[in-house]
Amino acid sequence: MTTVADVVAAQADQWLDQLVEWLRIPSQSGDPALAGEVRRSAEWLAAALRSAGFPTVELWETPGLPSVYAEWPADDPDAPVALVYAHHDVQPVEPLEQWVRPPYEPRVEGDRLYARGVADDKGHVAMHLLGLRAHLEAGGRSAPAVTLKLLVEGEEESGSPHFPALLAAQRERLACDVVVVSDTGMWAEDVPSTVIGLRGMLYLHLDLVARDVDLHSGSFGGAVLNPATAVARILGRLHDDDGRVAVPGFYDGVVDPSDEERALIASLPFDEQEWLANAHSRVASGEAGWTTLERVWCRPTAEVNGFWGGHVGAGSKTIVPREAHAHVSFRIVAGQEPAKVREAVEAWLADCAPSGAQLSLEWEGDGVRACSTSLDAPALQALHRAMETAFGVPVRVTREGGSGPEADIQEALGVPLVYLGATLPDAGCHAPNENAHIPTLLKGAQSAAHLWDELAALGAETVRREHA
Amino acid sequence: MTTVADVVAAQADQWLDQLVEWLRIPSQSGDPALAGEVRRSAEWLAAALRSAGFPTVELWETPGLPSVYAEWPADDPDAPVALVYAHHDVQPVEPLEQWVRPPYEPRVEGDRLYARGVADDKGHVAMHLLGLRAHLEAGGRSAPAVTLKLLVEGEEESGSPHFPALLAAQRERLACDVVVVSDTGMWAEDVPSTVIGLRGMLYLHLDLVARDVDLHSGSFGGAVLNPATAVARILGRLHDDDGRVAVPGFYDGVVDPSDEERALIASLPFDEQEWLANAHSRVASGEAGWTTLERVWCRPTAEVNGFWGGHVGAGSKTIVPREAHAHVSFRIVAGQEPAKVREAVEAWLADCAPSGAQLSLEWEGDGVRACSTSLDAPALQALHRAMETAFGVPVRVTREGGSGPEADIQEALGVPLVYLGATLPDAGCHAPNENAHIPTLLKGAQSAAHLWDELAALGAETVRREHA
């Protein structure tokens, strides 16, 4: 009997050649000059999905760049419906001089395939193509065991500006029992893991304008408002001495990780010195009472992403600045409502702001909610079983500190999200020399092949459940 | 009998033509491309001083741009020696498009003469030339009543980088009983005044570097030091809630203005609304317990002249910045030692600085002491009598909040400084459309003419006294 592992092993070389072809297309959504390449990438993928057997393949247009949608119904009309989310656009490549190999000339070296987009996120789409083939061939099927839908976005690396509208417009066609997000990583090559939470985010631009000109600090200093000082006083009060965000009401509703999850986090093979080296930092710091991983995964934060005012750069200038500015972002966690956090921050700022200057606040959009998956969600358990079959070792859980369009998906579709991703921590996502670890990607493909069987065995109603 | 006023009136037109010629020379010391023009300005002045009758006229070279020195001994070898300080270099002219008239094509309109440098400071040098002529002609003298020395600097608008060394090298030739600084202004056209104090200054560049790269605020935010937050916390603690500088020891030694001086300041015709309009500010603010004029004249301050870190400008970037920076300057007053203030600030910063980041402090030079003249200094009283003769109304005292090379002069020569300046508040110094009010400048010339007589009448020993 041919197994999933057999098919994956037999097809690996040909599959890799196909992926390399796709990786040659510089589908950078952030560069308007490369919009045509993003479209070419979408068309390449649509053709690949058609030759893989998907009966329905469409380019979904947006006011920006196109997504690719594909659908392959199960033979059983009551089979669960799984929607895979990934993206085909890639990050910019600057600084180009730091790439050891040109980013769009993919090269295999040892176990790794190097190219922009191979980890984030074209490799994951390819992983599903190979996984589906193994699922069909090893199972002797002409259709997958679940109804499979694929949504591969074209603007993820540009902040998904048109994605919520697309989700809203296509909600009925995207209806499903579970979403499988394939745009994340694993703890380590020998420690397969899935993600069960992402933080949400709000991003604030703050401007404090005291006047229309800079003043001479000799002639006026000491008797007029200094907006740089005022903004420093605001930002300086953003945290208390324990590293907690000092905005009243900020923590309202926060759902803390369960004792079970904290224990799982604590059990991960974590080397703080290695993490610090990775963070180019000498010391860990942050909110008292939480470990480093808990701080980045489970705790809401306020970060000054940038500030400026008055004379910047070398040299000296004796001025009282006219105005000062800051970018501040808030990561939020399960239980925090973006709108309420925004209200709390605005009320606090109204309290902190000095009189005699104009404080203007501009928020980026409505903010993004946090995403979370229950440890006992049946779909998560099914994913872990599928991965354990492929990897042969227990699968762990992690979270990610960042935020993504997953929150929009969860909100639009209202079903559990699970994360099947095969990127390793040293994959160089958003950085030079991006790479994928081929054996891990192949085990990811095997996991996908098994996952469709595991989900089919549960039945649609169970798959949809948040809790066991 | 010909009076000082007669001579000034008779010579005014010719004198103005001569000044206009000088003002056509763009002697901007800040622009290396115009170094030749600064030299041409020095040579023009040297020639003018020679034709005015100064027996000794020299260009004093520095590693930068030349100063002009002139000396005219009194007939009486025991007469007081007065040293006039001014400068012949000018500010840049940008933004050029805001000049109604080209800055180097001087034009008389109504009572005003418009040109770069006419107020700051060539007009004052010319004022002394005219004053000296009136002094000689009205007094029927072949030499001034005091031994007159003139030092006209060429790099004042560039921070006088070589001036302290020049003072040290020429200390013996500059020896005098009083310095007459002519580089300041008057309260108003109808309120002649002299300056009795300047604040000193220290300028600090502060850099806090946490790492060599910016970090993703999703992946690392909350668990690593944010240097922008840390710098904001430092700057935010620079003042207490009463607007006092919170650095322990900062106020050590501060000499408060006497009750007499506070009363004199309070009696000035001061319109706070007008001052605020001038400051482009909506509200006065600053240290509790002091008036606006006291805050800018008599109180030490800490001002954030600029800060920056992380993502600056439009758009958003989700980073934890690698480093953050600030320029902070401290104005100091009589009784404060720059070196001790520096020590206090450094000790405080060592206390505030977070661990795990590199705090670097760079001070601009050694700092500048404050300058002050006693209300009862005989030379000041002499100046007031001279001005009252010229203006016909009582003369008031003011201070200036800024700092200048005067402190170096006072330290090098150890004699009283008095300030005879005729610039009005709307003169546009360091700004477009710089101008001089000609009648005030002519009264300034008369004041100078009388001053030499007043000082001669006191005798050298009295002129040197700090107190009556």
From TrEMBL, chains A, B:
The keyword Protease applies. GO terms for molecular function: metal ion binding; peptidase activity. InterPro entries: Cyt/Met_Dipeptidase, Peptidase_M20, Peptidase_M20_dimer. It comes from the Bacteria. Keywords: Hydrolase, Metal-binding, Protease. One of its GO terms (biological process) is proteolysis. Residues 196-354 form the Peptidase M20 dimerisation domain. This is Acetylornithine deacetylase/succinyl-diaminopimelate desuccinylase-like protein.
